[in-house]
């Protein structure tokens, strides 16, 4: 079992392993969960997702993370930090969240997103984290805004041969002027 990288109030976060394929398939193959991708993944696409994620771990140390409910040990989904060079033409750490349908509406995406951002600032040492989502993905936009991310731009991105509009949000690490300490721009919640 992979070690826990960090925790939030209700969740632990660790790397996915090949043994997690069944848990991954539950949410990746669900077309309702994967509506922003416009389809549930096939077995082959799940394999590709897991392989790309493993490559991210090897290359950058992070990727999608296994989010586990502390109380039930259930898989909440994939919430993580992906290093990318294609965020409206910039490179940086990107926050992503795909939540298993049975955990929708319970605040797990926002809690996990806050935890990932705090971890990125503390452990990775970055001073900003991006999030990008299709303009039609109101739920992802709501999570980004709820945790205090700021809208940056909208740009067109090629996805499966189709050009689609994406919103970009950012959370910057800011300096607390009174104490000189670094803090996130996230609201207390």
From TrEMBL:
The family database entries (PROSITE patterns) matched by this protein are listed as: GNAT
**Gene Ontology molecular function:** acyltransferase activity, transferring groups other than amino-acyl groups
Q: Which UniProt keywords apply?
A: Transferase
- One Pfam family named in its UniProt record: Acetyltransf_3
Q: Which InterPro entries match?
A: Acyl_CoA_acyltransferase, GNAT_dom, N-acetyltransferase
The residue ranges of the N-acetyltransferase domain are 11-176
Q: Which protein is depicted?
A: Acetyltransferase, GNAT family
Q: Which organism is it from?
A: Christensenella minuta
């Amino acid at each position: 079992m992979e070690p826990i990288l960090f925790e939030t109030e209700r969740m632990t976060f660790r790397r996915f392993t090949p043994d997690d394929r069944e848990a991954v398939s539950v949410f990746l193959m669900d077309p309702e969960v994967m509506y922003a991708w416009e389809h549930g993944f096939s077995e082959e696409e799940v394999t590709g997702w897991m392989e790309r994620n493993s490559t991210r771990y090897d290359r950058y140390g992070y990727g999608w993370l296994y989010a586990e409910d502390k109380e039930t040990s259930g898989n909440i989904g994939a919430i993580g930090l992906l290093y990318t060079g294609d965020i409206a033409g910039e490179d940086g750490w990107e926050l992503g969240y795909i939540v298993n349908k049975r955990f929708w509406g319970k605040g797990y995406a926002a809690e996990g997103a806050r935890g990932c951002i705090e971890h990125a600032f503390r452990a990775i040492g970055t001073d900003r984290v991006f999030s990008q989502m299709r303009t039609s993905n109101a739920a992802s936009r709501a999570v980004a805004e709820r945790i205090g991310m700021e809208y940056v731009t909208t740009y067109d991105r090629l996805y499966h041969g189709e050009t689609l509009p994406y919103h970009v949000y950012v959370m910057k690490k800011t300096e607390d002027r009174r104490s000189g300490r670094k803090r996130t721009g996230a609201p207390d919640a």
